[in-house]
Amino acid sequence: MTDTTAPLISFSDVKKHYGEGSARVDALRGVSFDVTAGEVVGLRGPSGSGKTTVLNIVGCILAPSQGELRLAGEPVFAGGRWLRDDLRRLRLEAIGFIFQFHNLLPFLTSTDNVALVLQLAGQSRGAARRRAQELLDYLDVGHRRDAFPSQLSGGEAQRVAIARALANRPRIILADEPTAALDSQRAQVVMDLLRRVAIDQHAAIVVVTHDDKIADRFDRVLELRDGLLV
Amino acid sequence: MNLALRDIRHNIGRFLLTCVGLSLLLTIVLSMLGIYRGLIAESLTMARAPGVDLWIVETNTRGPFAEASRLPGDTREAVARVAGVTEAGSLTFQSVETETAAGKLRLYVVGSEPGRPGGPTRLVDGRPISQSRYEVVVDRSTGLGVGDRLRLGRREFQVVGVTAGQVSSGGDPVVFITLRDSQKLQFDLAPPAARRELARGGGEATSDIVNAIVARVNRDVPVAGVADGVRRWKHLAVLTQEEQETVLSRSVIERARRQIGLFTTLLLIVSTVIIALIIYTLTIDKTKEIATLKLIGAPDRTIVGLIMQQALAMGAIGFTFGVAFILAMKDGFPRRVVVEAPDVAALGAVVVVVCLVASTLGVRLALKVDPATALAG
């Protein structure tokens, strides 16, 4: 990560199509946007508008057909190819993912789910567990540290998932419908948390959502329709 | 953090149930190996029991177990006088079916001369045969005990001793009677047939026939040299103890050995397929978790480790249960099942290989999982 003043996410004229010829589907038709540190940006649009494709490209799990992607000022994709070999490492250290259905590993406790990503990044077991417990306390689920995901409520599980996403102190957080499975009150709590994380960690947060309950909780909302920002 | 172990602990009931299923399969594999070893052990029991160096049989035969062999009864005296031979005994062998209080009983009857090689050894009850007629020493597996009576042919015999583990290559319990009784049992004509022979003018046929002569050789004399000496008699053939054991283990039970070998191979293939399917199914069940792991940046080795370690754990636990089952059950089989440590170790190594091979299917599936699946809701 080279330029500290640059937008944390820079999406420049990104196009993505699937298939060729008569089977060609244009998922993104030249999308550009930036997200800076501390911003919580909503990404909305009807099904098939390209929201998940944007998330997959920013998450470095899908290559664009054309365009440029820069993360924290560093070019990651340009000229039709990835510019880094270690995308897995980039995802592990620089990007946090939050899912619609928490996606916690069912056989790990809350602490272990969070500690896992820290250990994958090379931290010792003890240090990872200490950091995991700090994060769980920060997100008000410290009292559920030894519970398995099946023993957690939807809101608790989502907070543990957020703790996991924050574990390696990523500057970029991608959330896919993080409140869709929660009631209105819990959805507001999750949005409060994301806002706090954006401020405390100077992180750029992109939230894909259909959820009207949280429509007014973003700094900006990007509206996608048929592969274009409107 | 060992994800495989955590997953196993979290789903311990299902995992152990799967292991038990696998262990039953491995128990069958081990029992087949044990039956095969038991066949060899049982077939060699008869050849090893007399503790002799040479088996003298009819020329051009490999008797008495592989082929029929008939020798004049006085051959023993000639063999006993060969230089280097310290002891020699005549033996007869025949299969008999008789009736006891417990029902029909198939027996392998050995006729031997008391005090000479070939008789019963290691009695677990009673005494050796001491009278010239109508006494019998039986194997424990007949269910008979000292004092019981046993009908062989037209005669009743008194059980005077009991041996253990003496069975034929066919698994029938062995009983020992005197050579004279056995010759009567095997070669005497039934009274109507004998009367018919007399009416036809035929004399009474001799029953002084034996199936084999066994001989012990002085330790200071080469066995091969003594065998060569006996072979000079054109009507005799000689097998050393080693040759006799080879005939039994490689020839008499060869088909059974190949049959069991093929069956065991098929079972191992079935085990491989079953383990592969189990691992594949477990991997499919974890597609979402694997996609999440990939998305959050877990290296492939973490995911491969999760699958392979579970496969190996399943194999190890299934194998351990399988060994425990067969050791607990082996004495309940109708025929001897011999579980030998090298066989168990070899199967253990095979199970490790099978688990690794079987898990490749799951590993391939896991490596193909698209991390984007985790975002698919």
Automatic annotation (TrEMBL), chain A:
Q: Which InterPro entries match?
A: AAA+_ATPase (IPR003593), ABC_transporter-like_ATP-bd (IPR003439), ABC_transporter-like_CS (IPR017871), ABC_transpr_LolD-like (IPR015854), MacB-like_ATP-bd (IPR017911), P-loop_NTPase (IPR027417)
Q: Which domain of life is it from?
A: Bacteria
Alphabetically list the UniProt keywords: ATP-binding, Cell inner membrane, Cell membrane, Membrane, Nucleotide-binding, Translocase, Transport
Q: Name one GO molecular function term.
A: transmembrane transporter activity
Q: Could you identify this protein by its name?
A: ABC transporter
Q: Transmembrane residues, as ranges?
A: none
Where is coiled-coil annotated?
Answer: none
Answer whether the UniProt record assigns the keyword Electron transport to this protein.
no
Residue intervals of the ABC transporter domain: 9-230
Q: Name one Pfam family in it.
A: ABC_tran
Recorded hits in PROSITE patterns, A to Z, give: ABC_TRANSPORTER_1, ABC_TRANSPORTER_2
Supply the Gene3D superfamilies for this chain.
P-loop containing nucleotide triphosphate hydrolases
Q: Which GO terms describe its cellular component?
A: membrane protein complex; plasma membrane
Protein's UniProt keywords contain Metal-binding: no
Q: What family classification does the UniProt entry report for this protein?
A: Belongs to the ABC transporter superfamily. Macrolide exporter (TC 3.A.1.122) family.
UniProtKB/TrEMBL annotation, chain B:
Principal localisation: membrane
A single GO cellular-component term on record = plasma membrane
- Where do transmembrane segments lie in this chain? 12-36, 260-283, 303-329, 341-367
Keyword annotations for this protein, in alphabetical order, are: Cell membrane, Membrane, Transmembrane, Transmembrane helix, Transport
Q: Which InterPro entries is this protein grouped with?
A: ABC-4/HrtB_transporter, ABC3_permease_C, MacB_PCD
Residue ranges annotated for the ABC3 transporter permease C-terminal domain, each copy included: 262-371
Q: Which domain of life is it from?
A: Bacteria
Compartment(s): Cell membrane
Quick check: keyword Kinase in the entry?
no
List the membrane topology term(s): Multi-pass membrane protein
Pfam families cross-referenced by the UniProt entry: FtsX, MacB_PCD
According to the entry, every stretch annotated as the MacB-like periplasmic core domain falls at 16-228
Name this protein carries in UniProt: ABC transporter permease
Higher taxonomy: Bacteria, Pseudomonadati, Pseudomonadota, Alphaproteobacteria, Hyphomicrobiales
